[in-house]
Predict the 3D structure of the following.
Amino acid sequence: MLKGKTAVITGSGRGIGKAIAMKMASLGADIVINDIPQSEDADKTCEEIKSLGVDSIVVKGDVRNTADVQDLIKKTLDKFGKIDIFVNNAGVTRDGLMLRMSEDDWDLVMDINLKGAFNCIKAAARPMMKQRSGSIVNIASVVGVMGNAGQANYSASKAGLIGLTKTTAKEFASRGIRCNAVAPGFIESAMTDKLPDDVKKEYFKAIPLAKFGTVDDVADVVAFLASDMSSYVTGQVINIDGGLHM
Ligand SMILES: NC(=O)c1ccc[n+]([C@@H]2O[C@H](COP(=O)([O-])OP(=O)(O)OC[C@H]3O[C@@H](n4cnc5c(N)ncnc54)[C@H](O)[C@@H]3O)[C@@H](O)[C@H]2O)c1
């Protein structure tokens, strides 16, 4: 389904990003792994991907930093000559009730989750415009759609990412570039492992399918949006949440 395509996935050393990278590799895409400079996972993930029979490189860098993002695009083009798929997955949480949330925690989450995606879209769109094709997929969150007490920074960043998705879709549609978002609900990962048990129980009660999601549940939908199987889909947000929000 993705044979011959080149996919760049930010924050893909572990978690959902890694699952997306592995899924796309299993469907035939060559993969560029990006993660923070300190990441040890990124190199291991790259080796796992190569064992699936596709090519892969690691380009470490912080999505907040425009020079790092330029480097990511340049090294991708040097190696593969094109970018067919770009997934904005890098993201963090710094949860807390609003009255106690520090300005630093607000800024950090907005900078990585929202400005990081803006930096990447701006840089990836240039080669995609030249190619007159490309698919951008942004990993938002269901809390960007419905809000969540204790996540003012995170929910605002993800709601912003949904707005950015729709604007990107409108600005670049005439150049053959699509842009969509997914809004995962509660997905079992390092990000949700650290939540207290009572919070997990409350989530569980609200999920009609009565199970938490897996990283592969997200990767399947992202692969569909990245592929030509969704060639008439742009500007959309697909919830992957077991029915939590409908
Ligand atoms: N886990 C969930 O339940 C859930 C639900 C909805 C949305 N999401 C979103 O999915 C994405 C992945 O989440 P995850 O659960 O796999 O989390 P994770 O913490 O396991 O993975 C996030 C990855 O992003 C990397 N990263 C962090 N800051 C970065 C930066 N500045 N530049 C480059 N890379 C950076 C981290 O090193 C890490 O490898 C995030 O955007 C998250 O908001 C997760």
In short: The two ends are 29 Å apart (CA to CA). DSSP finds nine helices and seven strands in the chain.
